[in-house]
Each structure stands twice: as structure tokens, then as C-alpha cells.
């Protein structure tokens, strides 16, 4: 209904306009610098409409011709951008499919066509690396550096990642050290350095890096403690390897002493680190030095490995050593590991009765292969062979965890 009404209004308007044009043609005179132009009003309006239509057609035709020409040979910045985006999208699609060589070619073309080539060059470098073409990968990284000189960090991190992935650890270390020097607080660079040091077994460098890892919150406390223990375990093993072939005891323990002297106060109070150092000293023949250090620290950093090592380590004064261990019983009356250490120290002092009491007390609290073994040797020394044999058997069963029930053999 509304459409029909609108149609009637348009028809009425056309009849009204035609009536006006027939009854009054109008007159227009334009004069300028001796030239005149005369026309009816409606003729002038028709000329204007025709002129505007011709201009519109000319613009449309020009745009069509320009679009066709740009399709063949793109010249405008918009066309270049569109082409670069298309190449990047195709290259990224091929990259996700694992078509590395095709992805490298498309991404390289996109980098040359686009205004922001960095991401394309880096992606092309990764594609070339995945294809095993390391020379091409290095070439794309150099291109990225020349086209985007302000992106040293992004290029360097990508280079280090590719070097790590191809197991070129020394090259990755050199790249990361250069980056770390310029960006010492960058968390990801620190994290990659940590990985390189671990893979290179460079525990000394890792130990020096650990405080920075904690400060920049690259590792949590649990991981920090684990890495610290791993590093010092390896460092003291290296110190043992370096020192065991030297002549004098002083020369043997020097590598371990150098590590110990470089530790902070808190690190020296760490029971695990203290154990590694003292255990290294004992294996290198410096038992008295290890016993003295253990005696000085056991009161404030007691641990089972430390007291076990103390019970096995003969000091300069065996009686004084036993008295000190007995003083620890005031706070740890029912500690089976301490009682085992006391039993061993009593044995070393040839106090057979006291040694037996300590060992049996330890055994009542916790069954242990070491306690069974010590009791077996002690009772054998005291000519109690039957009991000694029983302790040895029980220790063997405990060590084996379970005995195999052999099938019974029947004779015909």
C-alpha cells in the first residue's frame, strides 16, 4: 500500500514538472569577457546532468583500468601490502603443515614485499632451519638484522633458539652472553642461559647465575633449591676428580676448599651443601678436617646424611667425638640415625657394651641394614656367633626386600 502511494506521488511530481517545463521554458544568459551563453533553464540543467554522468563514467573506467594494471604489476602501496599479507598467510599455512621449503620461499617473498619484514624474515629463518638448511637460516637472520637494526633482541633470541635446537651449544652460549650483557635483566635470556649451562655441564657458571635467576623470578624457590643442589653436587664431584691424583692431602682438597671459600654464609649452613663438602674431604683422605667441620655445624644444621657421615668419619680425638655425639641426644633421644652413629663411634672407642646398647636402641626404632650389619660384626667379635649369624641374615633379607619362595622338590 505504501509502495503504491509512493508511486502515485512520483507520477504526480513528474506531471507537475513536465507542466512547468511546457508552460515556462525559463531563460539563462551567461556573459563573461565578451562571450555570452544563452539557453533555456531546463536545457542548462540537462547539460549539467549529462556532464556529471560523463565525469562519473570516466572515474569508474579509470579505476577499472588501474585495478587491472595493478593485478598484473602492482605499484600502489596498498597493492603491495595486500600482496605481502597474502604471501605471509600462505607461508604461515605451509609452515603449520610442515612444508618448510615452500614456507621459506613464501615468507621470504612476503618480507621483500611488506613494510614490516622482521616477522617474515624470522619466520623464514625458522622454516629454513626446520628444513635443515642452516646457511639459509643464517642468511634470513642477517637480512632481518639489516632491515630492522633496532630489533637486535628479537633476532638474537631467535638465533639462540635455533642454535639450541640444532645442538650448537657453544654458539648459543656466545649469542646469549652477548644478549645478556646488553639486557642483564631479561628473564627469557636468563632462562635460556640456564638451559645452556645445564646442557654443557657448566655448573660453575650456573651456580653464579642462580642468584640472578631468583632475583628476576625466572625460577621458583623449589626449582632454585634443586638447581643449587644439582650444581654443588657436580662441583664437588669435579673437585674430587681434580684432587684425587695429587700428592699431598693439602693439594688434594684445594679444589674443594676453593668452592667452599666462595660460598655465602647461608650456603655454608645448608645441610646438603655441607654434606657434599665434607663427603668430598673424607674421600680425599682429610677425615679429621671433615670431622671438625661437622662437629662445628651439627648443632644448628642437623640432618640424617650429616650425622651418618659423622658416625663413619674418625676424628683426631675419638673420645671427644663420642662425647659430642652423645650431647646431641639431649634434643634427639629417639633418633635412630643418631643412635647408629653413636654405636659406630662407641665401636671405634672399643666400648663394646655401649655400642651394643646404642645399636639395639636404633634397631628398635627403625630396622636398618647398616644396624644389622654393625650388630652382626660386633657380636661375631664377642664370639656370639649364633646371634651374629641371625643379624646378618635379617640384614640380608631386609636388603633384598623380599625372599623368593623356592618350589619344593619331591623325590620319586
TrEMBL record:
As for membrane topology, the entry says: Multi-pass membrane protein
Tell me the keywords, alphabetical order. Answer: Cell inner membrane, Cell membrane, Membrane, Porphyrin biosynthesis, Repeat, TPR repeat, Transmembrane, Transmembrane helix
List this protein's GO terms for biological process.
heme metabolic process; porphyrin-containing compound biosynthetic process; regulation of DNA-templated transcription; transcription elongation by RNA polymerase II
Q: Where are the transmembrane segments?
A: 42-75
Domain HemY N-terminal: from-to ranges: 26-132
**Is Transferase among the key words of this record?**
no
Say if the entry is tagged with keyword Membrane: yes
Instruction: Give the UniProt entry's GO cellular component terms.
Output: plasma membrane
Q: Subcellular localization, per the record?
A: Cell inner membrane
Q: In which pathway does it act?
A: Porphyrin-containing compound metabolism; protoheme biosynthesis
Q: Which GO terms describe its molecular function?
A: RNA polymerase II complex binding
Please name the InterPro entries in this protein's record.
Answer: Ctr9, Heme_biosyn_assoc_TPR_pro, HemY_N, TPR-like_helical_dom_sf
Q: Which SUPFAM superfamilies would you find in this protein's record?
A: TPR-like
One Pfam assignment:
HemY_N
What function does this protein fulfil?
Answer: Involved in a late step of protoheme IX synthesis.
Q: Which NCBIfam families match?
A: TPR_hemY_coli (TIGR00540)
The protein here is known as HemY N-terminal domain-containing protein
The source organism is: Endozoicomonas elysicola
Amino acid at each position: 500500500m505504501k509502495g503504491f502511494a509512493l508511486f502515485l506521488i512520483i507520477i504526480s511530481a513528474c506531471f507537475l514538472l513536465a507542466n512547468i517545463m511546457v508552460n515556462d521554458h525559463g531563460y539563462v544568459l551567461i556573459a563573461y569577457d565578451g562571450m555570452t551563453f544563452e539557453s533555456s533553464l531546463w536545457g542548462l540543467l540537462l547539460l549539467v546532468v549529462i556532464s556529471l554522468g560523463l565525469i562519473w563514467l570516466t572515474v569508474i573506467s579509470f579505476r577499472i583500468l588501474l585495478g587491472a594494471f595493478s593485478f598484473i604489476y602492482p605499484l600502489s602501496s596498498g597493492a603491495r601490502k595486500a600482496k605481502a599479507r597474502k604471501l605471509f598467510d600462505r607461508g604461515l599455512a605451509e609452515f603449520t603443515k610442515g612444508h618448510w621449503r615452500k614456507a621459506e620461499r613464501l615468507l621470504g617473498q612476503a618480507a621483500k614485499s611488506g613494510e614490516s619484514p622482521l616477522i617474515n624474515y624470522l619466520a623464514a629463518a625458522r622454516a629454513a632451519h626446520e628444513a635443515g638448511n642452516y646457511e639459509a637460516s643464517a642468511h634470513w637472520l642477517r637480512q632481518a638484522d639489516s632491515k630492522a637494526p633496532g630489533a637486535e633482541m628479537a633476532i638474537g633470541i631467535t638465533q639462540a633458539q635455533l642454535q639450541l635446537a640444532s645442538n650448537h651449544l657453544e654458539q648459543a652460549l656466545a649469542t646469549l652472553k652477548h644478549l645478556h650483557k646488553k639486557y642483564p635483566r631479561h628473564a627469557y635470556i636468563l632462562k635460556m642461559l640456564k638451559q645452556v649451562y645445564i646442557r654443557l655441564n657448566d655448573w660453575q657458571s650456573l651456580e653464579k647465575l642462580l642468584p640472578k635467576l631468583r632475583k628476576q623470578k625466572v625460577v621458583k624457590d623449589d626449582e632454585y633449591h634443586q638447581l643449587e643442589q644439582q650444581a654443588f653436587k657436580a662441583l664437588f664431584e669435579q673437585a674430587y676428580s681434580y684432587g684425587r691424583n695429587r700428592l699431598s692431602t693439602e693439594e688434594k682438597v684445594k679444589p674443594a676448599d676453593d668452592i667452599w671459600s666462595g660460598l655465602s654464609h647461608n650456603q655454608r649452613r645448608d645441610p646438603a651443601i655441607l654434606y657434599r663438602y665434607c663427603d668430598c674431604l673424607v674421600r680425599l683422605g682429610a677425615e679429621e678436617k671433615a670431622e671438625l667441620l661437622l662437629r662445628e655445624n651439627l648443632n644448628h644444621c642437623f640432618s640424617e646424611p650429616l650425622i651418618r657421615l659423622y658416625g663413619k668419619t674418625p676424628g683426631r680425638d675419638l673420645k671427644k667425638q663420642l662425647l659430642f655425639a652423645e650431647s646431641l641426644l639431649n634434643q634427639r633421644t629417639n633418633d635412630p640415625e643418631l643412635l647408629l652413629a653413636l654405636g659406630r663411634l662407641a665401636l671405634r672407642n672399643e666400648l663394646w657394651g655401649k655400642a651394643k646398647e646404642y645399636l639395639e636402641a636404633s634397631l628398635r626404632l627403625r630396622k636398618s641394614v647398616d644396624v644389622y650389619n654393625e650388630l652382626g660384626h660386633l657380636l661375631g667379635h664377642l664370639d656370639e656367633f649364633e646371634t651374629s649369624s641371625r643379624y646378618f641374615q635379617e640384614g640380608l633379607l631386609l636388603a633384598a626386600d623380599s625372599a623368593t619362595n623356592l618350589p619344593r622338590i619331591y623325590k620319586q
